[in-house]
């Protein structure tokens, strides 16, 4: 409680950056999804930090909604991955170049 | 027991430092692990670290939900799909598929990190404190969060139920096998 907002925000920024770089680097769609989860968690950490610093419970309410949306997003995303995998053998982003000109 | 000279501040600092190291190590592990299963396990580590930081900031309900929903449900779903598809093969990370992808990604990442840190140093004086209700004071965290969600954020809360129903319907539609065998076109993946 005695730690100010700064360290938490820096940590969240680093977590977000690692997630974003991972999303750009990795080719496996499942790992890319996990990197999206990392970025969502970084934002959640920021929300909770500001909820504490500004003494406003609204930040925590927003994290609750982010959790719900993340759960729905994972369900649909994994469903899409499974249905892609039925058609072809790889789940890397390089296998999905059907629209390539 | 803590030594009396070490106050609560030291304990807070220690908790934060250890959790921060766990969170960052897990995040780096997710990105660098070759095996998707290892990535998923590293993701669990990160999620637990974030849950500890939630507890540290008095967000007890969210910490519990983080462990139950994220580590308990979402990661298990990830592992389930990995095992179902049998993609738990090692990925060759040395070969760069797209030329210059990694340097570009790292440069972009460093740039966005610098931007975020710059923004974090700015003072955001909105003057609006505790719009949705105070986070401290009497009452438990769950009580205050519930009061906020079920009064001020009631409409978004109802909207999430619609969202979940849509997600369930979408998942069922995606998972359904077409009853009529589709003509397997000459080219691969006529309908991917």
Structural write-up:
The complex is a heterodimer of chains A (101) and B (192). Chain A has helices spanning 5-25, 29-53, 58-87. By secondary structure, chain A is mostly helical. The longest helix of chain A is centred in the C-terminal third of the chain and has 30 residues, at 58-87. In chain A, helix 1 (5-25) packs antiparallel against helix 2 (29-53) and helix 2 (29-53) packs antiparallel against helix 3. In chain B, helix 1 (8-32) runs antiparallel to helix 2 (36-56) and helix 2 runs antiparallel to helix 3. The radius of gyration of chain B is 23 Å and the shape is globular. Chain B starts with 7 loop residues before the first helix and ends in a 17-residue tail after the last helix. At the A-B interface, helix 1, helix 2 and helix 3 of A face helix 1, helix 2, helix 3, helix 4 and helix 5 of B.
Summarize the structure.
The complex is a heterodimer of chains A (101) and B (192). Chain A is an all-alpha fold.
Number of helices of chain B: 6
Overall pLDDT of chain B: 80
Ends apart, CA distance between termini of chain B: 60 Å
* Rg on CA atoms of chain B, Å: 23 Å
CATH level 1 class label of the domain at 27-93 in chain A = Mainly Alpha
Mean pLDDT across every amino acid position of chain A: 84
For the termini of chain A, the CA-CA separation is: 55 Å
Ordered list of secondary-structure elements with their pairings:
The complex is a heterodimer of chains A (101) and B (192).
Chain A: H1 5-25, H2 29-53, H3 58-87
Chain B: H1 8-32, H2 36-56, H3 60-85, H4 101-120, H5 141-152, H6 154-175
Helix pairs in contact in B: 1-2, 2-3
Descriptors:
heterodimer; A: 101 residues; mainly alpha; Helix Hairpins; 3 helices; elongated; B: 192 residues; 6 helices; 66% helix; globular; disordered C terminus
